[in-house]
Structure formats: structure tokens, C-alpha cells
């Protein structure tokens, strides 16, 4: 068996060397000192067949540096440099220098040139470069050994003959024209599983929306063969799983295969056919997942994907939320009411209502789950200040708080019901204005003496009301304490025990970080949810990234963040009382590092 594997390896490496050698012999050499520019031709280096080009590709008012299929009418980009800073102005040069380095120079008016090294960590200087017909751009040393190649650093695409090695990933673009890395990634995990995740997740099993189910084969990698097969193979080239089969056995030089992770989160395999008398055409051969709405994270927080009549996906806000950007439905939705008025479970029925939806579910981790009746589930969410909705399915009630991340429609044969809490309409300000106007009109028509009498009577009435409220408040507070003890003894905790502490923790973090609890327009996906970002900065001791100035006491800042995270713990028993919060703020009680809240790990 070992000799068979050795023979197979020998044949494979012989085929690879023959392929590279034949391409090298046909490809024009890019010599040291050669450069291309955005200002005058040539703006790119082509492969022998001119199907691929490497250089400056026009986009918008500038250029990007990358590799593309130079076909008509539109080029297909297969690789780009530095995707977070890929835009190049109309005054730049790409040069293979005399020192054997591939350098991008951005020329600035009245300023020094900005240089960026494209090929890094070379094992010695390059002697020449080539753009191969495979779509691979390669640097060679003086012994014609490849010391750097674009195939080893895929972006969102692999081509025929290219691998996605263990530990590597494909990162989707933000949109069709925005090539920055965002939204989704395909990861070839070290455990052997090929998995699709949203980009702003922790890559947990909960976050996955497709996988090859090949965990348990560490070290295997994804290979797109030159015949169009997507294979998961091990180091001895043994196929562990055929992800997709093209059915072709011959290696046609007129067909190029391309597997790309789209900005919509779908992984697709294409064939580009250049051969025959027929015109050039592109064919979609295979894709996962099969339904667009199966892509987790395709719709943002607090929204779900819905296929409309023409087969196009649309994002719909959950009840009680509104679009963050009404002109762009995909970034998600935010709550359209404030929970600051949530003070007592007895007041909830007058402040909120329950909206019922069927065939809706979510994959988020619930902070509360219990086997109770449907009516108890509905009432439990209504009386819970932080409850966004309660999923009732098969006799089980699962409560979820904002933001809800992975909402989706269920199949027709699945029976599920969700109780969403929605704020009732408040008294319109126009009514208040009209009432004030009526009072003012009466006063203007009343004599001075009558006005004095009204003021005296009003003052007496107000004084009596304050006394009555004080007495009532005492008895109400006492009854709440008794009720709370009864709930604790009966195990029905409800949500009467934040509420103020939880709200205080959210407000405290918002003050420290100078932003809302959920922000869509942030520089990095992990910054969307404040509780998640705050916890990561705290445990990694990187709170100085907030850049609050030199006068800020770092120890006090860290203490404030820890107190805020303690207050928003999901388990009520873990949250400190307001008395303990005050003692921690005054330094009477020490503050320890809090555990990770569910919101920070979801």
C-alpha cells in the first residue's frame, strides 16, 4: 500500500512539474526592473493565451491591483492584493525591482511616494516573474524555483489546480463592487471540516450554515482539479470526499474552472469555456447552500430572509423593530421603542402587547428555556423587560433578547409559534399641546383674584397628592418586596428582579464607549454589539484602543467596564444589586473580572 501511495505521489509531482515547466517555457518572462503604470500602457502583464492578466484593473475613479480573467464583456476578478486597502489612485506604478522585490508605489502630489511590498517573506530575491495560463502569478529565484505565488494566498476564489489548505479560508467581498473582506467566509478547518460561516461570528457550530461533515480528518485540504472536481484530499492525495463532481475526465485547456464565495454567502463553482467555434460562455455547475435564505447573516440583526414572488430574497424586520437604513434592507433592523419605561411586571400589560407569528424560528442561544404552557410562555415574555420574543415549539418556551441574530422561516410542516413583544402607541404630543393651550386660554379669561385662588388650591392639591403618593409608595414597595420573596420561593423569578441593574449596565457601557449598544456602521464586524466588543477589549487588555486621551485613569476605566458587564449578565443571580454597584463604584468593594455574557458569545 505504501509503495502505491509513493508511486501516486511521484506521478502527481511529475505532472505538476511538467505542467509548470511547459507553462514557463511558453510564458514571457517579467525581468527585473520591469514596471507597469496606471498612466500609460501597458497597465498589466498577460498570460501567454491572454486569458489572465495581472496589474491595474479600472474600477470607479481608480484602479485595483489583482488578477482577472481578461474576457469580454466583463472581466472576472480572481485575486486582489490587500483587500482592506485595495483602491489605487490614477497615479501608481507596479514594479519588479532590481532588488528582486514586487513593489506597488502610490505617487503623491507634493509628498513622498507610498510603497507597499506585494510579495512578502520571500526566501531570497526574485530573478524573474511570470503570469501563467492557470491564473497563478509566480516569482522565481535564479534557479527557476518558485519562491512566491498568488495561489498560496487566495482571496475569495480558487481556480483549477489550486488548493485551499488546512487553516486557510476564502473571504467574500462586501458587494459586487466593494471588494473589501466582509460578511462571509469559507474555512478549511484544521479538524478536516469545510465550513461556511458569517464573518462577524465566533465560528461556532451554531454559526455554521453549511459544512462538509468531514471533521475527524485533520490536515485534509480542498482541491479544485483541472477537470472541475472539488475534492477533499489528504496529504497522500487520497480523496476523503467528493464535494462536487464535474463528470469530466479530460483536462481541456479551453475550459477554466473557478470556485468563488460570493458576497451573498453562496459558494459557487463555474466553468469558463473558451474553446470551439461557439462564443465564450460561463456555466454555473454547482453551489451551496441551495436556498439563499439558508445563508446565516444574509439579513442583519432582528430581521429574517423571505423569498418574494420573483424568486429574489428580501429582508423583513421583526415586529417591534424598524430598518436601520430604510434604503438598504440587508443591514438589519433595530428596536423602535425604548425599554427605559420597564419598571414593574404589573405595568407591562399597559406598556406592551404581544404579536404572534407562526413558522418563524431562530438559532440563537436562548437566555431562558423551560417546558411550560403556551399561555405561560406568552405571559412570561410580556412581563420580561429584556425579552424580544419567545419561541414556543413542542411544549418548550425559549426566550431571546435583542439583538436576535439568526431568524429564519420554517417549513410548512413545522409547527412553531413566536410571541414578539411590541410597545403600545404612546399618547400623541399633539393632545398634550392642545390640553396646555386650553388651560392657558382659561387662565387668560380669568380675573387676577381668581388666578390667585386657583394657584392656592392647586398648591394645596399638589401637596396632598405628594403626601398620598408617599404613603402609597411605601405600601407598594412593601408589597413588591413580599411578592418578590414569594416568586423566589416558588421558583417563578419572572423579570421583576432589572431590570434597573441591567439597564444601568447597558447605559454605563454606552457612556464609557460613547456609542449605542448596537451599531451597524462600524469599522469591524466584532464592534456591532457593544457587550461583545467591550468584553473582548477587557479580557485582551486592549481598552486603550478607545483613545480617550492621556488624562483618563486606565484603572478606573477598566473598573467601569467590568461593572457594566457584571450588570448585564444573563443570569439574574450573577448581577449585583444596586447597593453593590454603588459600593464597587466607590471602591468599597473590589471588582473582579466578570464571566462572558451570552450576548458577547452569540
From TrEMBL:
Residues 1-22 form the signal peptide. Residues 27-152, 155-282 form the Bulb-type lectin domain. SMART domains: B_lectin. It comes from the Eukaryota. Keywords: Disulfide bond, Glycoprotein, Kinase, Membrane, Signal, Transferase, Transmembrane, Transmembrane helix. The lineage of its organism: Eukaryota, Viridiplantae, Streptophyta, Embryophyta, Tracheophyta. This is G-TYPE LECTIN S-RECEPTOR-LIKE SERINE/THREONINE-PROTEIN KINASE LECRK1. InterPro entries: Bulb-type_lectin_dom (IPR001480), Bulb-type_lectin_dom_sf (IPR036426), G-type_lectin_kinases/EP1-like (IPR051343), Kinase-like_dom_sf (IPR011009), S_locus_glycoprot_dom (IPR000858). One of its GO terms (molecular function) is kinase activity. Pfam families: B_lectin, S_locus_glycop. PANTHER family: G-TYPE LECTIN S-RECEPTOR-LIKE SERINE/THREONINE-PROTEIN KINASE SD2-5, RECEPTOR-LIKE SERINE_THREONINE-PROTEIN KINASE. SUPFAM superfamilies: alpha-D-mannose-specific plant lectins, Protein kinase-like (PK-like). The chain crosses the membrane at residues 454-477. It comes from Salix viminalis.
